[in-house]
Write a structure and sequence with these properties.
The protein is an alpha+beta fold. Helices cover 26% and strands 32% of the residues. Strands 1-2-3-4-5-6-8-7 form an eight-stranded mixed β-sheet, sandwiched between helices. Strand 5, helix 4 and strand 6 form a beta-alpha-beta unit. It is globular. The chain starts with 9 loop residues before the first strand and ends in a 25-residue tail after the last strand.
Length: 212
Amino acid sequence: MTSTFPNISISTERLVLRPLDTDDVPALTEMMNDEQVAAWTDVPRPFTERDARTWVTEHAPAERAAGRGLDLAVTEFLTQRLVGVVRLTGTDWHVRSTELSYIIAPWARGEGYASEAALATAQWLFGDQKLERVELRTAADNTASQQVAQKIGCINEGVLRNACIAHVRTEDGGWTDVRTDFIVWSLLPEDVEGADGQSADTDGFAAYTDWN
């Protein structure tokens, strides 16, 4: 029988991570249309409300039901405002590992939300879900995302050469693909014991290469 993640909420000092719902569609649409999100992820460009609704109502539930992953809205505890998304993909229940990705809304960057959300998710995965490995992949030029990985205690395992596609603006205002490397990071249960994810100077974007 395929294992699946439960529909849960994870609370931190400042954040609540919970399943995406249709009330998130407007804020999700705005967040995913940010220039930096478009540069570092493979989400549709432009990202429409229809894309957001499909993600919330179809894609995310299907991934969870199939045991492949879990999408969580990251919200402020006090305001309930959507500040980002944490995503688990490529979950292997036999190996007990998963890949973690994150995006933070433009207005919420620099507050340490990415590291706080990522660390809380990892602690839940290692504790409640008994996973043994969390993997992150960051584009070689995405220093903000790499700082988040370091902040939560990840170990740099090496480089996947030419394995990432990023996006840059063209002179006519469109987008073009550029190839770059992936840096692979891992987090094991013993790695999070001394990590402090409550604050960070930068927030980043791990790649959402398999969003479609």
